Amino acid sequence: MKIIAFDRRSDSPFTLPPAVELIADSAVVTPPHPLFLPDFDTEWEGRICPAYRIGRLGKTVDARFAPRYIDAYGLVLRLIPAGTDKALRAAGMPVGLDGLFDSALYTGTWLLTEGADMSAPLAVSCDGVDSVINGHFEAACKAVESVTRYATVKTGDIIIPSWLPVAVVPRPGVTIEGSIDGTVCLSVRIK
User: Fold this and answer.
1) Confidence (pLDDT) at 27
2) Fewest C-beta in 10 Å: which of 88, 89, 153, 166?
3) What is the pTM of this model?
């Protein structure tokens, strides 16, 4: 399994070649486990992101056929070591560490695309902040097209096409929750 995260906000255009980061599958924490903040940084940023799970093998998938490859969607929390990230970017160095460390990504509960109206806007609520993402599924399909131009996607891979303009500050003792259309699909206890 691989996790491919696009380095773009939900209101930004896609670029080719795509600006992506790989997140190691060993860096993923799943429910019901808590998320432990690593001790190598003191400044943490949490990015709430829509995520899409791949349900079949694919290479060179056109965006119009991408819905056949996406079987589930949900929300994830990307943990960004802000201090380390700033230092690496300022030095012009790659930020590959962002997807390598343990606890870099927390996945929530997956919602199946089958039977869901994927053309409807995605209404996301996180920690009292509401966001609406128009064209979220089209963006996911474009992300699949962009990725499969260069690499094969496999069952279980996760595509994160963007992050929401909602940033959260993860602190020990806090629970971060997110819902899609009123269904809680992300609940993260920070330790």
Assistant:
1) 96
2) 89
3) 0.93
- In which residue are the tokens 């595509």 written? 159
Q: d(Cα 171, Cα 127) in Å, to the nearest integer?
A: 13
Lowest mean pLDDT among 7-11, 49-53, 160-164: 7-11
Which residue shows structure tokens 């079987």? 71
CA–CA gap between residue 74 and residue 52 (Å, rounded): 7
Write down all domains in the chain, each with its CATH number in brackets.
3-189 (3.90.850.10)
Within a 10 A sphere around the Cβ of 189, how many other Cβ atoms?
17
Distance CA 155, CA 125 (A): 28
Length of the chain: 191
- pLDDT tens-digit readout, 16-68: 888 899 999 999 999 999 999 999 999 999 999 999 999 999 999 999 999 99
Handedness of CA 62, 68, 72, 73 (dihedral sign): positive
Dihedral over alpha carbons 139, 145, 147, 153 (to 10 degrees): 110
Between CA 26 and CA 108 the distance in angstroms is 16
Per the DSSP assignment, residues forming a β-bridge with 126 are 129, 178
125 forms beta bridges with 130, 179
The predicted pLDDT at position 12 comes to 86
